[in-house]
Amino acid sequence: MQPDDFRHQGLRRKLVEELRRKGIKDERVLAAIGKVPRHRFIEDSAFDRFAYVDQPFPIGCGQTISQPYTVAVQSELLQVAPGEKVLEIGTGCGYQTAILCELGAKVYSIERHRPLYLATKARLAAMGYRAMLVHGDGYKGLPKDAPFDKMIVTCGAPEVPQALAGQLRPGGLLVIPVGGEGRQEMYSLERTAAGMKATKHGAFSFVPMLENKAGG
Ligand code: SAH
Prior knowledge:
The chain has 216 residues and is an alpha/beta fold. The protein is built from 6 helices and 9 strands.
């Protein structure tokens, strides 16, 4: 595992200040970003210097590690309380998973791409994060472990997957980018007695959520 030296820690502090300037207010989220060594989620240490730039970065398999600002916005919208059960869809390299663990969540995370699932499982375990990682299709959610307090989708969904709302507890939140390839609108959906109450939180760009392709 790559060391986490003073240089990394300094760059991380600067990133936290940048996110604060960009409007992130939740101190717990900022503290989590200040703590998780993002450079360890980028395989090739030659690209170390990009780890604390506020940009997405390619991680292989045609996927990316989400931009820190995006991770911060989604984490803030999720309002995670310690001990809550959170389902993440789109584990990728596991950076968002680690942030959720730092926020005290009990994390379940689904990834459809098997090599990524395996690499991330090993990485998070080596870093001491205990999350329940699953290889499968996030469109189905995780019925056997439902209900969840919160759900976060970290790939761009053409629409809100049917199965997910039913696996959320009443009063629970689903944070999901919805839209076509290249541009999605961030939604926070609250499960209420009357149905799902939606609020919009601006435009983002995620890799697409792909259906029924587990095993890729
Ligand atoms: N959470 C990651 C972002 C990963 S990118 C981070 O912290 O950086 C989105 C991931 O969603 C990709 O790894 C992609 O393979 C995965 N994905 C796409 N469609 C999916 C589906 N239907 N089920 C599970 N994972 C999916």
